[in-house]
Amino acid sequence: MEQEVLIKAEGISKKFCKDLNLGLWYGLQDLGSSVFGSGKNERDLREKEFWAVDDISFEVRRGECLGLLGHNGAGKSTLLKVITGLIAPDRGKITMKGRVNALIELTAGFNPILTGRENIYNNGAVLGLTDKEIRAKFDEIVAFSELEEFIDTPVQYYSSGMKVRLGFSVAAFTEPDVLILDEVLAVGDVGFRTKSFNKTLEIMQKAAVVFVSHSMTDVARTCNQVLFMRHGKSYYQGTNIHQGIDLYLNEFKTNKLSLIEMNDGADLSNFIVNEQNVDLENKEVLVIPFGENIKVSFDVDLKKNYDDFFAIVRISDKDMKIVGSVYTNRFNDYFKGEKKSTISVDVLNPRLINGEYSITVMLAVNKKDNKFQIDEFLAIYRDFIKFEIKGLEFAEFSPVFYEVNTKQVVND
Amino acid sequence: MQIKIYEPTKRSGNLFSLIKEMFKDLFSSLGLAKRLFIRDKKAEYRQSVFGILWAFITPLTNALVWIFLSASGAVSVSGTGIPYPLFVFLGTMLWSVFAESVTMPLMQTNVSKSLISKINFPKEAILVAGFYKTMFNTGIKVLILIIALFFFKITFSFTIIGFLLGVVFLALFGIAIGLFITPIGMLYTDIGRAIPIALSFLMYLTPVVYKGTRFQSLQAFIDLNPLTPVINSTRNLATSGGLDNPTYLLIIFIATLIIGLLGWIFYRVSIPIIVERM
Question: What is the ipTM of this complex?
């Protein structure tokens, strides 16, 4: 059976003014027109105004989760403020059913000088719980926050992580029908992050959720539809989460991340990857078909005299996580300390799935007596080459298939 | 399940349903208002040794100043009917109920900025919490007043109930005016700066520390001032006197209800416009 629609947004638009004083003056005009009826064009753009949210429509049913993507300033937070009723839309209509809980600011109801215990009641009341409801859930809330020891300590002595823990714990026990999450899961230590994420998943099963996050892993794990906003407009909207995420990540293609961290010992130039010249200026991303070897070559220009040296080639993914490293001295010979040379490193069977990656190239020399200890780096070219793997058809593909031992014991 | 619909602000077609919704929000906000009031009062006195005693100390010292001035003969006002220190204590107490109430909506909205801009809750809660604060401060002064009445050997009768109702009415009168100022004051800080100046000026145009004046034109203005009958009547009720200018009082009462309701509607409509600019 189809679940009921809890959030319905129809053609929402919201405009903002870039100028403070003009914005205040417009505010005064809006106050006037809201009391005395309207001038004709009040919903059109005035001078220095722009559409922060422009004609957005969506529906979220109970048990569904809408992921809201977009770079900073794309209008996500404004959209959230409109759907929670904090500000009124300039066009369109929002219908919300049931208890709404917006986890936008977790510690809004806190008073720093009061104890954690008192602030649980304060924050609970602000989120719409009665004293009786809070009393009933009090122990659960404290246990979830793991702050038993400090519950009678003023909140101003809490660390920022502890405050957020307490705030999240209260919010998590409000049992909402509609849940709005604005990047609040990226707080606290790793342990609490996992715990709060799981709690959120639990709430999600019974609620309609709108989820804003910059963590694409979280979005892919939780959402069943995405809305990708660019400059207030809907750029992609649909149930193909991966397509939405890809489009979103492509936004950052032109961002310049490459960095020559140091080149005291050597200059590297003329990078070539899979017979394609790397265009550092234009930042055209290289495309490598899925499954192909990655062949990197570059010219080395040594600035000092070295007997020999080796190269470290490191591949990182979009989140800057290292997915693979090559130490050329481990399985191959050292390179000779010639003044000028061209070095090529072929990464065989790299097992990378679709996505964007970057290559860091480092040159180093080892200590004379210890093959595993680096004495000196000659050059570090961090995230210098970007490439994209394309062509993998199945999203379920796992880059490594492990060899395992299996056993089955027959029970009576 | 409650359904909320958000649309561009426009004039509500049905005034009756709007008022019904407003009162529904008002009653549903009482629990939160109580919580906010307790929170702010606790926080106010938590980092202090004397704690709640400070609530008594301030009005007591104020009263002592007037007793001293009167005893020294520096200020001599006659024709007040009751001992002058008592007259002034009552007058300033009632005035502060009014003055606090006028500034309360703007102040409460300002200190709750971070809450209003992040969480959607009935905004009536912060106004009611502010009203509680005013009543709390006044309650303490009433206690001091009762002691003072014993001290001056003035018998007080059941009219003291009328006095308390008068205090509540004075607060509502102040809030009604405050609600109209608040939305504009939230946009432009000029309003917040101008209010104390205007109030201190207005205080001397109201029989707070004196009964009347010999200057005809000024007296005419004082008689027109709607605060005059309200403050005079309330003060009289505390000391078993009668109402001052009942007809005008009734007109002011009805006007307050209408102004208050309109101010409340204005305040509600303005909140999203203000939040946008926070």
Answer: 0.83
